[in-house]
Amino acid sequence: MNDLATAPTSTKVTREQLDDLWPEIDWIERPTLREAVAKTWLLAFERGPLTPEDLKTIPFTLLVANCPTTFMEHKRCVVHIANESAKAMQVFMGNALKIDLDTVIAGAILADVGKLLEYEIKGGKSQQSERGELLRHPFTGVALALECGVPDAVCHIIAAHAAEGDLVKRSTEAFIVHHADFMAYLPFKNPNNLKK
Ligand SMILES: [Fe+2]
């Protein structure tokens, strides 16, 4: 099992490979936040067994049998939905709600980064690892992000994006990412929604 605190930090994935995987990182305007997000993903690749190629091929969830959509298709879709939703809320509710677009984008990009420590590949298929059973990705995601200097407002989104977050008083940015994530997940739970 990888040890989160003492795993080696040699580079398995380059920054160029990461930018190819995640072009949306470039949408983050504040340079320190952009670099902290990139650093978190690079660290997750160091600590976990999955590669960028795996993320382009494995299903995005283990909770839907034969899920036809990949991890990266789902994650990038969530970032795009969250970004557009945040902009619409800024236009119509910006006088009432504080909405930081960089925080939304960073949180959406990092929401599932902990899955790199939750999953393992066995027999060509992804499955939950021993660590993943004990610590789902919202927990390991926060641990990785804090280590890389990601601010608390973004760690809050990682922590609260999934069902565990239903017990948390979510920020507006966390609500946006949570609903974007579920909008791009729940339709798969009804087999009638899938193209034949
Ligand atoms: Fe998630």
Automatic annotation (TrEMBL):
This is Metal dependent phosphohydrolase. It comes from Koribacter versatilis (strain Ellin345). It comes from the Bacteria.
